[in-house]
Amino acid sequence: MAEAQSEGTDGVDPLNGDPRLEPFFGRSWAAVLGFHDLLVSQGELRGLVGPRELSRLWERHLLNSAAVVPFLPREGRIIDLGSGAGLPGIVVAAMLPDAEVVLLEPMERRTAWLSEVAEQLGLDNVVVRRGRAQDEHGRLVGTAVTVRAVASLDKLYRMALPLLEAGGSLLALKGSKAEDEIEAAKHVGRKLGAGVASVVDAPTIEGVEVTRVVRVVREAVPGVR
Asked: What SS3 class is residue 50?
């Protein structure tokens, strides 16, 4: 099969109808396809995705979100920080039905969207919570935190690590500068109990750009023995 293109020349997503998508998503396929269709019909109208993104939803957004799933726990509480349109949180919830997925988002119009999506797709493992990460420190704790396109890693550490229990993992979807961000953030991470961060390549289907995921475990919670 020819290598997937990141954007169709006619404005149509080249991965629409690709027979590899359903087996890749497996049992979550119906929910993920439903989410895709909601993004197509309402995403631009509601200011959630730009017009250029509609022709690359599968590669840049849905498969990109799914790439983090193999590194997440099957159960427990996963906090999606700054969930926005629901990427990766809605995809994670669809693919991990035994985990509680908290979509943490400060903007009211986005939390309204996330609640609607979860209800329409029947994702009863989703909890939509309006707020900023900093306001939830000491109140909300998870087994893992996911984050995509929110801030540089040094800022993410300050926001995300206090949301993790000891032994919990932060999974941040990052790009080509991931290693530089890790180096710049290591002192902040150490103060907050983080171990050594690593970058893992997370493939999805052939021809789609590999997603780069920064993974760091909160080895200890400062002040707690």
From this structure: coil
Residue from 207, 79, 54 nearest 148 by CA: 79
pTM assigned to the model: 0.93
Would strands 142-148 and 126-130 be described as parallel, antiparallel, or unpaired?
Answer: unpaired
Contact yes or no for 210/175 (Cβ under 8 A): no
Backbone angles phi, psi at 198, to 5 degrees: -135, 160
Between CA 166 and CA 64 the distance in angstroms is 27
Residues 6, 209 contacting (CB under 8 angstroms): yes
| Dist CA 208 CA 60 (whole Å) | 9
Q: What is the dihedral of CA 132, 162, 194, 170, to 10 degrees?
A: -50
Chain-centroid distance of CA 165 in Å reads 19
Q: How far apart are the first and last CA of the chain?
A: 54
- pLDDT of res. 8: 47
Phi first, then psi, for residue 44 (nearest 5°) are -70, -45
pLDDT at 3: 39
Distance between CA atoms of residues 64 and 162, nearest Å: 25
CB neighbours (10 Å) of residue 93?
A: 28
The predicted-structure confidence for 17-57, as pLDDT tens digits, reads as follows 999 999 999 999 999 999 999 999 999 999 999 988 999 99
Instruction: Give the up-direction half-sphere exposure of residue 175: CA atoms within 13 A in the CB hemisphere.
Output: 5
Q: Is 9 exposed, middle or buried (0-12, 13-18, 19+ CB in 10 A)?
A: exposed
